Amino acid sequence: MADKIAVGGVSVDTRHWIGGRRVASSGTFPDVSPIDGTTLGEISRGTPKEAASAVAAAKAAFPAWAATPRAERARILHAIADGVEKRLEELAIVETTDNGALLRSHRRGVMPRVAHNFRFFADWLLSLDHDDFDTFPSGGSAAGRGHTNHVSWDPAGPCVLITPWNAPLMLATWKVAPALAAGDTVVLKPAEWSPLTASLLADIAAEAGLPAGVLNVVQGYGAEIGDALTSHPDVRRISFTGSVPTAQRIAASAAANLTPLSLELGGKSPLLVFADADLELAVDLAVEQYDNAGQVCLAATRILVEEPVAEEFTRRFTEKAARLTQGDPRDAATDVGPNIHPRQLEKIDGFVQRAVAAGARAVIGGHRSDGQYYAPTLLTDVAQDSEIVQEEVFGPVLTLQTFADEDEAVRLANDTRFGLAATVATGDQARADRVGARLVAGTVWVNCFFVRDLQAPFGGSRQSGVGREGGTWSFDFYCDLKNTVTAP
Ligand code: NAD
What we know:
Layout: E1 4-7, E2 10-13, E3 16-18, E4 21-23, E5 28-32, E6 39-44, H1 48-67, H2 70-86, H3 88-99, H4 103-125, E7 132-134, E8 148-155, E9 158-162, H5 168-182, E10 185-189, H6 196-207, E11 215-217, H7 222-230, E12 237-241, H8 244-254, E13 261-264, E14 270-273, H9 279-287, E15 302-306, H10 307-322, H11 342-357, E16 361-364, E17 377-380, H12 387-390, E18 397-403, H13 406-414, E19 421-425, H14 429-438, E20 443-446, E21 465-466, H15 471-478, E22 479-486
Parallel strand pairs: 9-10, 9-12, 10-11, 12-13, 14-15, 14-19, 15-18, 17-18, 19-20
Antiparallel strand pairs: 1-2, 3-4, 5-6, 7-8, 8-22, 13-21, 16-17
Bound molecules: nicotinamide-adenine-dinucleotide (NAD).
Nicotinamide-adenine-dinucleotide binds at residues 162-166, 171, 189, 191-192, 222-223, 226-227, 230, 241-243, 246, 249-250, 264-267, 297, 392, 394, 420, 460, 465.
């Protein structure tokens, strides 16, 4: 096996990164580009042995990193952000080749956000530990009067971070950055369908001066090494982004040691279009759901339109969607790229064909395009309790249903086992407030989509997740919170 492969002219190490050293496994797995099915190279196929050495390296590095002054930890995180910015173009081309998402999105949005993840949590770290208050300052228990409470965020220990392929480096650094800022050490397990940018991140972090063992990267199949990581007694936190079935396995495995979990899972989010909405904006929001070929956890894949505007909405949507260009994600003109894997394509088409067999009508799409591409699809005449309305497809497939009034809109929107996000298009702020308050979702967007400040909590209700990430919620998760009470 070659230790390094060239991807888009960038050299990427195919081995694990453990304790500050490159480590190879005897076995490998192929990494295939979804753009054209080319095998990019063979990647080290981790086993429980490498999983255990990565946890051991993270454990050994923990005391010194936890004791590193915050200002120094923050300085190193900013240096990692500098490294990401310096290699932004390389990261963008490698990520696009590896997972098929648009190159222009990686250049303009995703990779700058990766750098921002490090800067944001570095700066937030320096604002912690200002939480001091008196016990019952104005009455209450006489026994506790005048005592000072000091809340501190203590580093928790080695963390296992497991991430999916649809936004590999963005989602990995959304976990790595706060964990490192908090003073924890990390074993990162990227998805086997997009292993490359995690390897580049290890190089960047080492160049930025992150001490050996603080960040470790183990490659491989989740089914082969996941359990060795998630059931390990030395692991103090597990943060996972991925599917519900995998989360259930991880939760069962973590139960052995009662390891605290953060779970960011799937969704089947609604877009509610009211008759008083700016219809052009509503159509734009709906067409935007084909971004990343529909492989977005937050995607509003269930379009719910108020009856009086349904026909006009569908007409304008169809017109706009017809102008989308599907093709090579490296081309600037491309709007919709490939889907990640032949197996995923099979799954998407299965959902669509079963829906059509059950009576759904494909207004657009409803079939594969050439290669590993699926035609952007809109299905109408779908029943609320049907598979296509209830299950996450994770491809460019939307459904459209109509509603008569606000009550019915909310009922349809909430009739799902998920609760990740919801988008409301309306020209009436009072309605937005009323409807928003009734929706079960971690994020509600009003007349917008995908915009979020990193200070805000991010996560899902119901089966879309457990816990919240972002701002203080990330630190609360990656730290052991302590209250020290001092007598007057
Ligand atoms: P997946 O659950 O198949 O895999 C995710 C990761 O888990 C991979 O790294 C995989 O190797 C690993 N894994 C698999 N089995 C494991 C096991 N037994 N133990 C430990 N790890 C194991 O998910 P996917 O197909 O890669 O990603 C798509 C899913 O992720 C969708 O459901 C999507 O909605 C969800 N997602 C959620 C968010 C969010 O923030 N809520 C963001 C992106 C994606």
